Amino acid sequence: xxxxxxxxxxxxxxxxxxxxxxxxxxxxxxxxxxxxxxxxxxxxxxxxxxxxxxxxxxxxxxxxxxxxxxxxxxxxxxxxxxxxxxxxxxxxxxxxxxxxxxxxxxxxxxxxxxxxxxxxxxxxxxxxxxxxxxxxxxxxxxxxxxxxxxxxxxxxxxxxxxxxxxxxxxxxxxxxxxxxxxxxxxxxxxxxxxxxxxxxxxxxxxxxxxxxxxxxxxxxxxxxxxxxxxxxxxxxxxxxxxxxxxxxxxxxxxxxxxxxxxxxxxxxxxxxxxxxxxxxxxxxxxxxxxxxxxxxxxxxxxxxxxxxxxxxxxxxxxxxxxxxxxxxxxxxxxxxxxxxxxxxxxxxxxxxxxxxxxxxxxxxxxxxxxxxxxxxxxxxxxxxxxxxxxxxxxxxxxxxxxxxxxxxxxxxxxxx
Length: 416
Description:
Blueprint: H1 2-8, H2 10-35, H3 50-74, H4 81-105, H5 114-117, H6 124-148, H7 157-168, H8 170-193, H9 206-233, H10 240-266, H11 276-285, H12 289-314, H13 317-341, H14 365-388, H15 407-415
């Protein structure tokens, strides 16, 4: 009887599976909170690992919120509004996942509030903290009207009136969100780029690379999950033309990023720079070569861009869903490379160190478990939102206009 119930109610089974993943994550988080970072695979030579990669990947997802909101409200593309709503909801979840990963990674979660109280305006991490806080607040304001539309909240008249007023400020929130998110995405790249002791990271192009790659990945991921929800839920959330157009835009931005990434990486081999040259060789012809050329540049880059750009002309949903999924897989690999590549080579001689460190890193079960828990938790919230929020219950299909009758037929009828 129970098996029959689960077969006829696949959504319940899906929620149950996600709750299992969340439980594993809670067990890993409890271990980290009680035993500290010693329960992880992180060391002094490799202080950043899976959690930072997950954090950067979640934030890249959130880039779809500000980019599509800007297109909708600043460029006047009202037809993009259904997709922008999904992007904003995904953005809230993305930043929530990033915050959960950071709480685990800082080592002293009881001091998470120090960045808000003790301002170190010369620190890139302080700027990241403030931008995350402010932009997350903007995203919450944009999502608030969607949540207020839930049927059981209809009796709270003041709440609905407040949500209606907030919705009127959507264009202003789009401008503020665009500014804050651009600052945040670039400051994440700058956080890596200012690390002068790690030659593989220390370069001025990191902020620009982070912005462009995040925009491409955020828009692609929004298209990807929208297509999956439409297919599984058997309902239309966004007009097909909008999905194909956004896919084309994301593909074009991805090609721009690939051009920048290729020349930024290969330019490091023009001359010998201690640490950077060795790291570049590891990336392009060493242990990272397969994932760099195969995943980041080819599958998650060139092939994905071609699939999304050509999907509109061919009206191929398969090309669009495969291409958009490959883009996000490629951005995860990119963030993994960016995080770990710097720790494969000794510290540079500026600042001088007495014992250069070469790091090796294997994530512990606590990192795998908490990462699984965060992903399952975000997927659970997304599934519930797509199922119950009124804003995501589908759009009405436009009825095709009747074809005009031939002129000769009309004239004959008039003569009769």
